[in-house]
């Protein structure tokens, strides 16, 4: 059901993933393989650092407590899966597809998701530093109770994206396109670039007051006295 923004303007809410994982088998392999096919598997406390799973498909999988430092997953497809407590720096997911995915309590830095497609994705809890979502497409994505430090949405397309009880620090929206993006639940909103791209988003009255100096600067308005 669409929520109501200030002034009676409707904003369409994001559809969350509805996951029902089957009974999973423990992954017993030696590591990831490019273009690998992983179906109904549980990766628990696995060290996948530096491995190459580019183009792989993960279907009905759970990655729990895994290390993903410099793991290469470009163009991978992660479908109907859960990633819980994963950690790592420089995880490469460029041009990947995430559909019906839950990412919970992650500790990630420098994750590369540029050109990726995210649909019905829930990011709950955790902290992600320097998330690169440039030119990505996000549809029905919810960020809930998490901290995003300097996320880069440059040139991205966001449709039905919600931020609930989140902190957005130094977010870059340069060249982004926003449709039904709900920012009212952002507890700390800091925009480093692209304030002019907020058309298509809904913000709270308090956020408007906080952003007033940036908006005035964008419009060339001088505020004196």
From TrEMBL:
InterPro entries: 5peptide_repeat (IPR001646), Pentapeptide-BTB/POZ_domain (IPR051082). Gene3D superfamilies: E3 ubiquitin-protein ligase SopA. This is Pentapeptide repeat-containing protein. It comes from Streptomyces composti. SUPFAM superfamilies: Pentapeptide repeat-like. Transmembrane segments: none annotated. It comes from the Bacteria.
């Amino acid at each position: 059901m669409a929520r109501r923004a200030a002034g009676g303007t409707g904003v369409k809410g994001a559809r969350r993933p509805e996951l029902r994982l089957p009974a999973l088998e423990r992954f017993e392999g030696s590591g990831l393989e490019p273009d690998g096919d992983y179906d109904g598997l549980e990766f628990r406390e696995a060290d996948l650092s530096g491995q190459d799973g580019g183009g792989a498909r993960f279907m009905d999988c759970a990655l729990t407590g895994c290390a993903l430092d410099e793991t290469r997953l470009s163009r991978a497809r992660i479908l109907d899966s859960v990633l819980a407590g994963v950690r790592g720096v420089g995880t490469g997911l460029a041009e990947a597809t995430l559909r019906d995915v839950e990412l919970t309590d992650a500790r990630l830095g420098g994750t590369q998701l540029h050109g990726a497609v995210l649909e019905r994705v829930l990011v709950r809890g955790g902290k992600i530093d320097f998330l690169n979502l440039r030119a990505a497409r996000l549809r029905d994505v919810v960020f809930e109770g998490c901290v995003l430090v300097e996320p880069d949405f440059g040139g991205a397309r966001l449709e039905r994206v919600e931020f609930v009880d989140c902190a957005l620090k130094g977010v870059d929206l340069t060249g982004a396109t926003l449709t039904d993006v709900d920012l009212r639940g952002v507890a700390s909103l800091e925009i480093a670039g692209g304030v002019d791209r907020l058309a298509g988003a809904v913000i709270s009255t308090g956020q408007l007051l906080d952003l007033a100096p940036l908006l005035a600067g964008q419009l060339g308005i001088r505020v004196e006295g």
